[in-house]
Amino acid sequence: MAAAEAPGRPSLEKNSFYLSSAGFRVQVANDPAGQKALRALPAHRFVINGAGEALRYLYAEPEHCVCIFVGTQQAYDRYLEIARQPLKPADDVAPDYKTQAGVLLSGQPLRQSTLGDPTTLSDYLSTLYPHY
Questions:
Q1: DSSP letter, residue 63
Q2: Which of 33, 45, 78, 108 is in the most buried spot, having the most CB atoms within 10 Å?
Q3: What's the gap between Cα 79 and its chain centre?
Q4: Which pairing describes strands 56-61 and 110-111: parallel, antiparallel, or unpaired?
């Protein structure tokens, strides 16, 4: 049943840190186009956009930062390396973090075309992040 639960705040904060550390860029959804793009992406799931050198991984975080993380294949690979490292003991880590991290890593990234309106989503994302 844990896979159906939304990640808790400590997990979301740690995951946002991992994404940023891996090289993902944060695009805050603070305008109408950004809000629409954020709502069009599934929360807490990777979505693949583009192909070849233009391939980008998108990760919507509607709760913690109200943003979309945008990264390359290399950033995604670094993220996986970071997220799969065993946790060092710490007093401030939620006891269920490992279970919640598993939820964040479960499943393969979604192909953008599975979202139903990829052209419109690409248009919104290009207004948010024009050099991608």
A1: T
A2: 78
A3: 10
A4: unpaired
Residue-level pLDDT at 14: 85
Global pTM exceeds 0.85:
no
What distance in Å separates the CA atoms of residue 32 and residue 17, rounded to the nearest whole number? 26
Q: Name every residue whose Cβ is closer than 8 Å to that of residue 113 and which is 6 or more positions away in sequence.
A: none
The two tokens of residue 36 are 């629409």
Higher-scoring residue by pLDDT: 132, 97: 97
d(C-alpha 63, C-alpha 34), whole Å: 14
| CB-CB neighbours of 62 under 10 Å | 16
pLDDT at 41 exceeding the cut of 80: yes
Q: Residue 9, class by beta-carbon neighbours within 10 Å (0-12 exposed, 13-18 middle, 19+ buried)?
A: exposed
Q: What is the pLDDT of residue 15?
A: 86
pLDDT at position 79 is 94
For residue 114, what pLDDT is reported? 46
